[in-house]
């Protein structure tokens, strides 16, 4: 519903919900779900996104398999950190990173960050985040 949209932005001269704008700005980041298209309807918006197959969210992945081995957990965590850094470079912050908002392709182990509905653009006037890249080997 349009009335449920709390923040708006401009994408290619169109006023759209902020979530669409955030996905648009992060479209080149391989760890962010690809927005294939979006449509405006009288009652709201539809976002068409990629869906890796076979895939599940990280919560279900861990629930089904139990505790992850340290090398697997490290590799997954590194993907999340690199994706977050990519978003920050685009001045985007997700603000709701959790296992239910991370999709894993169960064949390749590649992760995709989804659900930017709580996200925002970073304000350049506010202090920067710590540079996490220095801690990644």
UniProtKB/TrEMBL annotation:
The keyword RNA-binding does not apply. The keyword ATP-binding applies. It comes from the Eukaryota. Keywords: ATP-binding, Host cytoplasm, Kinase, Nucleotide-binding, Serine/threonine-protein kinase, Transferase. InterPro entries: Kinase-like_dom_sf, PIM_Ser/Thr_kinase, Prot_kinase_dom, Ser/Thr_kinase_AS. This is Serine/threonine-protein kinase 1. It is an enzyme of class 2 (transferase). It comes from Panagrolaimus superbus. Its main location: host cell. Its EC number is 2.7.11.1. GO terms for molecular function: ATP binding; protein serine/threonine kinase activity. PANTHER family: PROTEIN KINASE DOMAIN-CONTAINING PROTEIN, SERINE/THREONINE-PROTEIN KINASE PIM. Pfam families: Pkinase. Residues 1-137 form the Protein kinase domain. Signal peptide: none annotated. It is found in: Host cytoplasm. It catalyses: L-threonyl-[protein] + ATP = O-phospho-L-threonyl-[protein] + ADP + H(+); L-seryl-[protein] + ATP = O-phospho-L-seryl-[protein] + ADP + H(+).
